[in-house]
Design brief:
2 copies of one chain form a homodimer. Chain A is an all-alpha fold. The first copy, chain A, folds into 2 domains: 71 residues, Orthogonal Bundle (Multidrug-efflux Transporter Regulator, Chain: A, Domain 2); 52 residues. In chain A, 68% of the residues lie in helices and 0% in strands. Chain A contains 5 helices and no strands. In chain A, helix 4 packs antiparallel against helix 5. Chain A is elongated and about 75 Å long. Chain A starts with a helix and ends in an 8-residue tail after the last helix. In chain A, 17% of the residues are buried. The structure holds a DNA duplex.
DNA sequence: GTAGCAGTTGGAGTTAACTCCAAGTCAAGC
DNA sequence: GCTTGACTTGGAGTTAACTCCAACTGCTAC
């Protein structure tokens, strides 16, 4: 698969794909004789994983560390598991925070609805 | 309240508090005769609101728009309500995404646990 | 064989959201 | 009246994560 094919499929720009490779989120992408990247299904799956983790805010640096551990082989299985567990915990906290903020917004919107219904009373902020 | 008191109370640096004021997230903070900021409880409540919204990723720009609408008075009640509803919807989507990613991480961690238990088999990534 | 297009590189530029700094002011204590 | 420490300002610097660019290469079609 060429970079533009992967780009379309994963909805990530070629620039970003090259950037991810450069910073170590995607190692050893195959090249054709002419030096053009030739992505495998495996590469795509990894890119989707990166995309998913990035979309919820895992930093490039954390992902870089994860793949660096990966390159060091089986003996880093536990370290990788712990890294994932740590990030999972942080995400869980963000999840609860998000839940609370959604509730707060719902309440605020309901207060707006009341203010709008009752002769446009003003709010504090 | 002085800026350092608010800083401690809200756990936001004085620089950030001044920055928020400068970009329009906190208008007309009172000053003492000597020109020193003197925050009210109301200001603090607003800062907490900003902090809460920022912590889940609402941009400074969106919050700036919200408070700008606010300054234009009651006739913007509906516009503000709609702005909040729009952001709520986006947060809801991020919420679902986060939920899915948590599940994915849980699964991946369970795969790691299996690999670690069964003689350190290696994974794909 | 040459036009055109997709790909390559290294490196510069951008954006959001802070964060830091230097130079100055002011009120309080000695 | 002088030091000290918290505060002020405008503006420069930082960081993460892209995003863009110029100059170049190498297939493919005519």
């Amino acid at each position: 698969m060429t970079i533009s094919e992967v780009s379309k499929r994963c909805n990530i720009s070629p620039d970003t794909l090259r950037y991810y490779e450069k910073v170590g989120l995607l190692s050893d992408v195959n090249r054709t004789a002419g030096g053009i990247r030739d992505y495998t299904e495996q590469d795509c799956a990894q890119i989707e994983f990166v995309k998913c983790m990035r979309s919820v805010g895992l930093s490039i640096e954390i992902l870089r560390k994860y793949f660096e551990l990966f390159k060091r082989g089986k003996r880093t299985l536990k370290a990788r598991r712990e890294l994932l567990a740590t990030e999972r915990k942080a995400l869980q906290e963000r999840f609860v925070e998000l839940q609370d903020t959604l509730k707060r917004l719902d309440y605020k919107i309901s207060v707006y609805d009341k203010a709008i219904a009752s002769k446009d009373k003003e709010l504090k902020f």
